[in-house]
Write a structure and sequence with these properties.
Strand content: 15-25%
Radius of gyration: 33 Å
Largest sheet: 7 strands, mixed
Strand order of the largest sheet: 10-22-21-20-11-18-19
Helix content: 55-70%
Number of helices: 23
Structural class: alpha+beta
């Protein structure tokens, strides 16, 4: 024990040292800006006490401390892009102020400019921290079952087919499905949902989520670099590096604007002296004020902090934007098309109705039916098995023979009995009792799939199944329609089934019996009519339509090609996230417009005031740089937007 304590004590200083270095690297710009502010206050006091030389030294140090990062950034960008930028403009303005004797004002300009730059860096770091926090969720080790023994291995070494043990309180090390045991899992880091999700046999689990209650045994289904966790990281990293059209325009505009300001400043150094009769000192002073107030700092900072904040906010809620351009485009959407299965619906059929002839024992018939269906991997068959389990009916009967009749159903033998379970078309309609025919007709109108049960050439029962509409689908469609967005369902199902789903979901219209090519053509028609359209899907057959849409949205549990093709990914299959994404997009665009209008108005007001000689350099510095800080802070509100 003493040895252990000693070891921990030896490592503590190095841990603290590493922590301090990390803090310094992360906040160095803010620290330097704050230091320059302190130096300005000291210099001002020294100047008022008559220590002129010491005061000048302090001001110069404040210039160097506060302006270092922006000067390096401005010079390197000028060399790299061969164009002027706002950083150089502010350095020129500060040097100009010092040249005409306004040391305090020039230093304050540097200080506030450095502070606004530190805030922008904070926004970038905050966005990157979302990735860092995700990286912290990835377990490095896992308990692998080898020859019946638990062996601790590296999580990165896990391969599909490996069996792992996940104990209560541990993070799940890989994507897979539970083979044995039951537990509840905290998936909040991926989905934004605070309530744990109950997981049992065959339930899907994801790397990075937390096993809360029970020990479970699971089979790994994906390699370490292919997990949903890694996809999230890659998508958010990609989104952070991609700029929106508005940001690209502002950056292109910046270089020309800076040249115009410098050119106009040169003219201002001479023209007012001859036209308005200003003194040379006043003329040069007004030129320096113009250099400060005409700088587009606030305009340049209007978009990027807001965009990064919105992308980070979306990632926390389980909405992954692959770039600012898609976040911006989402605000322009006028129509949304949905795939049906797995998007509007659960994607898993469930038994909704069942009928067995009255003279037979219902539980015995259902037990035999489930035992036969257990031999098939078809979704309808598995739904019947799951239904029997819910009724606590065992499927452990051993059948003598089971034959899969492709396209129709299953045929089985049990002792002297011959059973058939399958679609109505497989059976002689004359053999179906009249009351059962009426039920089939009614249930079919409700969009349900019918499975008939036959024993020794007698139809003895039926089971109706349906792919249920998600409750969140109804809420999402209501929101979209209230926002004036046209909704349409594109599905490969029959017209009857599509009509029922349309009625239940509330979508405006539908197109049934759609092959992938038909979905693409429908998306093109929607684009011609509405301009900007979105497509929401999850399957391989949806990928072409996702690529055709202005904005493609994939469900997180969808196929890999759908996830790759889409512009936005909903980590959890929750369509309400579509509404959240649109609200976030609208709020971001609203904040960006506020920032742009505000920054232009401030620049116009300050320039006008300077021409009327009503603005001194200190007020110009505070007004201009203060507006930049306000614009950045306004953008940062999106980090906590709901």
């Amino acid at each position: 024990m003493a040895k252990l304590v000693k070891s921990q004590t030896l490592h503590l200083p190095s841990v603290l040292k590493t922590g301090r270095l990390t803090f310094l690297r992360t906040h160095i710009e803010l620290i330097m800006a704050a230091l320059s502010g302190v130096l300005i206050i000291i210099a001002w006091f020294l100047m008022h006490e008559g220590y002129t030389t010491a005061s000048a030294g302090m001001y110069i140090t404040a210039y160097l401390t506060g302006g270092y990062f922006k000067a390096v950034e401005g010079i390197s960008n000028t060399i790299k892009k061969r164009d002027l930028n706002v950083e150089l403009l502010m350095i020129f303005a500060a040097l100009g102020a010092a040249w005409i004797g306004y040391w305090t004002e020039g230093a304050i300009l540097i200080f506030i400019f450095a502070l606004s730059g530190a805030l922008e860096t904070y926004t970038m770091n905050k966005s990157k921290n979302e990735i860092s926090s995700l990286l912290d969720l990835q377990p490095e080790e896992a308990w692998k079952l080898v020859d019946g023994h638990e062996v601790k291995v590296s999580a990165s070494s896990l391969m599909p087919g490996d069996i792992i043990i996940i104990k209560p309180g541990e993070r799940i090390p890989a994507d897979g499905f539970i083979m044995k045991g039951q537990t509840s899992v905290d998936e909040a880091a991926f989905t934004g949902e605070s309530m744990p999700v109950v997981k049992s046999k065959a339930s899907e689990i994801f790397a990075g989520t937390v096993n809360l209650t029970g020990a479970v045994q699971a089979e790994v289904t994906k390699k370490n670099h292919e997990t949903m966790f890694q996809k999230i990281i890659e998508l958010v990293q990609s989104a952070q590096s991609e700029k929106s059209p508005s940001q690209l325009f502002i950056e292109k505009f910046e270089g020309r604007y800076v040249k115009a300001v410098l050119g106009f400043t040169v003219v201002m150094m001479f023209l007012p002296h001859y036209i308005f009769g200003w003194s040379w000192e006043e003329t040069f002073y007004r030129a320096m004020v113009l250099l400060v107030v005409a700088s587009p700092c606030a305009l340049v900072a209007s978009i990027m902090p807001a965009s990064l904040s919105a992308i980070s906010n979306g990632a926390k809620k389980g909405i992954l934007f692959k770039g600012g351009v898609h976040l911006e485009n989402l605000n322009q959407i006028k129509a949304i098309a949905f795939d049906k299965t797995g998007t509007l619906t659960e994607g898993k059929p469930k038994v909704t109705n069942w009928f067995i002839r009255q003279d037979l024992e219902h539980s015995a018939v259902l037990q035999t039916t489930a035992a036969i269906e257990q031999q098939s991997n078809h979704p309808l068959a598995q739904a019947v098995v799951a239904f029997a389990k819910e009724k606590n009916i065992s499927d452990s009967i051993k059948m003598d023979r089971v034959e899969d009749v492709t396209g129709f159903g299953l045929k089985a033998a049990l002792d002297d009995e011959v059973w058939r379970i399958g679609k109505p078309d497989w059976f002689d309609s004359n053999m179906i009792p009249h009351d059962m025919l009426e039920q089939i007709e009614q249930l079919s109108k409700e969009g349900k799939t019918i499975v008939l049960i036959e024993k020794n050439n007698e139809i003895i029962g039926l089971i109706a199944l349906k792919d249920e509409v998600r409750q969140e689908t109804i809420d999402a469609v209501k929101y979209l329609k209230s926002a004036g967005i046209f909704t349409v369902m594109l599905t490969g199902d029959s017209i009857g089934t599509a009509a029922v789903i349309q009625k239940e979901t509330g979508v405006d219209t539908f197109k049934a019996e759609c092959l992938p090519g038909v979905k693409v053509n429908e998306m093109k028609k929607l684009k011609e009519k509405y301009g900007s359209v979105a497509m929401v899907g999850d399957g391989i057959n949806d990928a072409p339509a996702l690529a055709t849409a202005t904005v493609g949205v994939a469900m997180g549990a969808g196929s890999d090609i759908a996830l790759e093709t889409a512009d936005i990914v909903l980590v959890k299959n929750d369509l309400k996230k579509i509404a959240e994404a649109i609200r976030l997009s609208k709020k971001m665009n609203r904040i960006v417009k506020q920032n742009i209008v505000f920054s232009i108005a401030v620049i116009a007001l300050l320039i006008t005031s300077n021409f009327f000689q009503a603005l001194d350099l200190p007020l110009g510095v505070i007004g201009h740089e203060g507006s930049t800080v306000l614009v950045i802070l306004n953008g940062l509100r999106l980090l906590r937007a709901t």
